[in-house]
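We emphasize that the prediction below concerns an isolated chain of 204 residues; any contacts that depend on oligomerization or on bound cofactors are therefore not represented. The input was used exactly as deposited, without trimming of termini.
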Amino acid sequence: MRSDHRVSLPTDEQIRALHERFAPTGDAFELVYTHCQIICAVAEQLLCDYPAALNAALVRVGSLLHDIGVYRLYNAAGQLDHGTYVRHGILGHTLLRELGFPESVSRFCSHHTGVGLTRDDVLQQGLPLPVRAYTARTLEEQLVMYADKFHSKTTPPTFVTASSYAASVRRFGDDKVDRFAAMVKRFGEPDLPSLSRRYQQPLI
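Result of the prediction step, given as a token string:
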């Protein structure tokens, strides 16, 4: 483990080992771990251009672990439960907490969905979550949540432009579009064409 001066953070190798441990199938590992690597690449790209001082080591760990709860939504047949997918964040948070990770790391799992889920979102959308807010609190959490919007684990997995994401999130309300626009203004946009070529995945 390496220190970020406050908490002990796992190495890349330890994080990969966790993904391998909890992935129910090789395909699940490939889908989720590759997505986490991509979000890490997006976040670190944005981090380079962001003027404020952020904890780069924590951003990297948060990016690589944010979707680990997805593995707990696979059934015995290796099929993903898309109907309750929104639960993957709290499942990941619980998993990391059970493994002894600090709250500053575990929160990346439960606080990256959409542009942040409010208590009203949970109630109004009837989400299968405990009724409370799941919004990013620190700049590190905000950056990982924002970076996550630029890649989707669809079939096939795709990179998503800012304009495409803004159009898709509009169905949840103009306030979500405005919140995303504020993040674009704050953090800028990543160089998705280069990442699309690097990972050989399409850009929409």
